[in-house]
Amino acid sequence: MRADVQWKLCWENELQLSDHVELAEFFRKTYGPTGAFNAKPFQGSQSWAGARPELRAIAYDSIGVAAHLGLLRRFIKVDGVDLLVAELGLYGVRPDLEGLGIAHSIQVMLPTLQKFQVPFAFGTVRPELRKHIERFGRHSPLTVVSQVSVRSTLPHARIDLPPTRVEDPLVIIMPIGQPISAWPAGTMIDRNGPEL
């Protein structure tokens, strides 16, 4: 990690409008190269795509926002079993800092995850990121699960779309307060809300 990058934990209600504007621009530039659709939610000052995080780990350098990871505590259902998790999402690294990695943002967030006393951190990523996540997993106790469907509500209701969507992403599980053996077996995860 570059020495000039400083991580800051920010509660959502601590962010000012200028912070949201800067983060929205960061996400447009970070997610835009993966497709215009991925950058679309971050118009104007909107710095979230679905559910809003309650806590953010934001890395800054002399240019501005360098990396980001959001956290939201919520109950999900794994084949009908209620489970409290800290969902991690809104992960991004500025393209000129590739290699800064999710490992750094998780390490910044880890004391807070432990303080929250959640049994697991949970997140999803596109299957194309498997190698990236598995590389991170060599340095952290996480499990990557495939062949699990995740149902989420859409963040904005439209009469021409169903209210939910089902995807088959890679599911990332990180034990925090319980061992991975306590994660319920199942092939369907209900977020009961929009993706973080």
The computed structural class is: alpha+beta
Helices, by number, come to 4
Query: Measured on Cα atoms, how large is the radius of gyration?
Result: 16 Å
Total count of domains: 1
Estimate percent helicity: 10-25%
**Approximately what portion of the residues adopt beta-strand conformation?**
25-35%
CATH superfamily: Gcn5-related N-acetyltransferase (GNAT)
Low-confidence stretches: none
CATH architecture call: 3-Layer(aba) Sandwich
CATH class: Alpha Beta
- The rounded distance between the terminal residues' Cα atoms is 26 Å
Morphology: globular
User: SSE string, helix = H, strand = E?
Assistant: EHHEEEHEHEEEEE
Described by strand count, sense and barrel closure, the largest sheet is: 10 strands, mixed
The overall pLDDT average reads 88
What this model shows, in words?
With 196 residues, the protein is α+β, with helices and mostly antiparallel strands. 22% of the residues lie in helices and 34% in strands. It has helices at 17-31, 36-39, 101-116, 130-137; strands spanning 6-11, 55-60, 65-78, 81-93, 120-125, 143-145, 149-153, 164-167, 170-175, 188-190. The mean pLDDT is 88.
List keywords for this structure.
196 residues, acyltransferase activity, cytoplasm, single chain, 4 helices, globular, acyltransferase, alpha+beta, Aminopeptidase, Nodulation_prot_NodA_CS, ten-stranded mixed β-sheet, 34% strand
Task: Kindly summarize this structure in a few lines.
This protein is α+β, with helices and mostly antiparallel strands and 196 residues long. The chain contains four helices and ten strands, in the order E-H-H-E-E-E-H-E-H-E-E-E-E-E.
